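Table S4 entry, Zn-dependent hydrolase.
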Amino acid sequence: MNQVAHNKTDVEKIENAFQALDKKRLWQRLETLSTYTEPARPWTRRAFSPLFSEARQWLAQQMRAAGLVVRIDSAGNLIGRREGKRLGAKPIMTGSHSDTVFDGGRYDGILGVVAGIELAHALADSAYELEHPLEVVDFLSEEPCDRGISCVGSRAMVGALTPAMLALMDSDGVSLAQAIDQVGGLSHELSSALYQKGDIHAFIELHIEQGPVLENKGMAIGAVTDLVGVRSYTLTVLGRPDHAGTTPMDIRQDALVGAALLIQQNFQQAARLNTSQCYVVATVGCASVLPNSSNAVPGRVEMTLEVRSNQLAILEGYGDELFDTVREELQALGLRLHTESISYGLPRHFSDAIVEIIEQSSYCLGYESMRLPSGAGHDAAYLSDIAPTAMIFVPCLQGRSHCPEEATTADQAFAGLKVLMRSIMAVDKHVF
């Protein structure tokens, strides 16, 4: 009898917490935060900029209005905390980032931060208490900052922000360490990780998908299974610069022709390797041609190749396969190919238990969901090194992201928020 009454009370408390979620308040906060942008370049709010600091002041106010105790940690992450019932319990974290790329989208990152604030606000309004503390995090500089480093705050949390990274300077001669200090961090405390394994109960990040899969399949929720690894190369095709009007076609050593062959082969190879089980994309997104003149045969082409996959074996072998495939044809054209691997980030696989919880939460709330990988990088990648982690995706219009046309709807955002709340309530009871 008492147990039944207790369970009924728990159900009522959960229902009250969900009823306290306010879709209009969520959307108004999203729209307000997005207005912190360079007027001539929507939506641009770069980390460490004055606009970024102004937006964070507003975020801190919203966190306090939601009943959170606010601080900035040594890495410059903005954190709002709500205590839990159980003394000594490790925190459940949620959140994302509030900085943008240049001319970026208005919902990338900020949905996860604002949804965390709304979740905390609903818990406060309904007096629902989690067993664990809840921490809502605005991670510092998830997008690549002006020093070329991404995920600054989450890297620092887990000890992956190196002294060499901290020493990198922007065009004004300000180091990353100095910039972290200027936003309230304490860079001298970043020689070791801020969190160790076991310090965080779980981390769940809500985000727009930044791709077209959910929209194309008519799914409201994506339960993200893993994040791709990223491997980058510099490629140089060397030929011979000559006069474009006087050099016959049969004796030219045109480096741009060789670069075109390599780019085409790269496209074909990535398309062949990509399957429903193995995610592969590969992009030559940057190229320079020398002498770069309309009346000169190109003698040198420098490019970057970025390969992304959720399969380690693909990342390991992709470059060698590509280069071996085109090398003989390049040699026949009198060309040479130089390659160098310049960065390598491993794939991250998320917690199976949390992915399943996200799926179950979606089902219980009446939302269709599917499992899918993420082809983009996120702060969750670094948190997964030290804590059970997963992500929730909601659709974005035509899969567009990192552009002014990026869009989602109030209903889609609210669906993600409700799945986030139910998932956190389940994770709160889960023993990992």
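The longest helix spans residues 312-332.
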